[in-house]
Amino acid sequence: MKSPPRSLEIEPMRVEDIPVVLEVESLCFPTPWPRNAFQNELTDNRLAHYFVGRCGDEVVAYGGLWVILEDAHITTIAVHPRHQRNHFGERLLVALLEESIERGACWVTLEVRESNVAAQNLYKKYGFTIVNTRRGYYSDNDENALVMWAGNLKGEIFRNRLAVMKAGLD
Q1: Is there a catalytic annotation at residue 123?
Q2: CB 107 within 8 A of CB 128
Q3: Which of 1, 56, 105, 163 could form a disulfide with 100 if both were Cys (CB 3.0 to 4.6 A apart)?
Q4: Which ranges of 3-155 does DSSP label H, i.e. alpha helix?
Q5: What is the pLDDT of residues 109-128, one digit of tens each?
Q6: What is the pLDDT of residues 7-31, one digit of tens each?
Q7: ∠ Cα 147 114 42 (to 5°)
Q8: For residue 47, is it left (φ>0), alpha (ψ between -120 and 50) or beta?
Q9: CA distance linking residue 144 with residue 146, whole number of Å
Q10: How far is CA 86 from the centre of its chain?
Q11: DSSP state of 81
Q12: What phi, psi does 26 have (nearest 5°)?
């Protein structure tokens, strides 16, 4: 059996990517976003920035964020289950953090399921800390969301840390 490619090309999400993104979404989340949510993010929300990760021609991951002045919010990150454990989610996180910095954000937030310890550990690795809990945030099972925050994105310490960690992925 041929092993999957280890490289991931990250590029802006296009409307044409939505059908494949929805397939990955349905494999990764119990309450997937509907098509119009991605459509609106790509075509109507000037604050939204979405990316896909491709292995060859195949979209295997995606992520998005909003940047509002100095505030960035990561809205979603997903990796096709067949391609998980290849650091593709981490590569997307790095790309989203770099996009946040490039667009002038000073801090970034996200929500993560309380049970998703693997994701929390990844976010902590990049300097995120838990700052709040949203009780019953997820409608499929009323699970709590942890609000995680990373600040001082423009600071030398954060940027150096990000560069070192990115280099470790190559």
Answers
A1: yes
A2: no
A3: 105
A4: 18-28, 35-43, 88-102, 117-125
A5: 999 999 999 999 999 999 99
A6: 899 999 999 999 999 999 999 999 9
A7: 55
A8: alpha
A9: 7
A10: 15
A11: G
A12: -70, -25
Tell me if residue 90 is catalytic. Answer: no
- 1 confidence band (pLDDT: 50, 70, 90): very low
Q: What is the amino acid identity at position 75?
A: T
Joined tokens for residue 170: 């190559």
Give the integer Cα–Cα distance in Å for 7 and 128. 26
Beta-sheet strand order (sheet of 145-150): 9-12, 48-55, 58-68, 71-79, 107-113, 145-150, 129-134
Query: Which H or E element spans position 168?
Result: helix 156-169
Catalytic residue among 111, 126, 137, 143: 111
Catalytic-role residue among 123, 126, 137, 156? 123
Amino acid at position 128, single letter = F
The secondary element (H helix, E strand) that includes residue 169 is helix 156-169
Nearest to 15 by CA among 69, 48, 32: 48
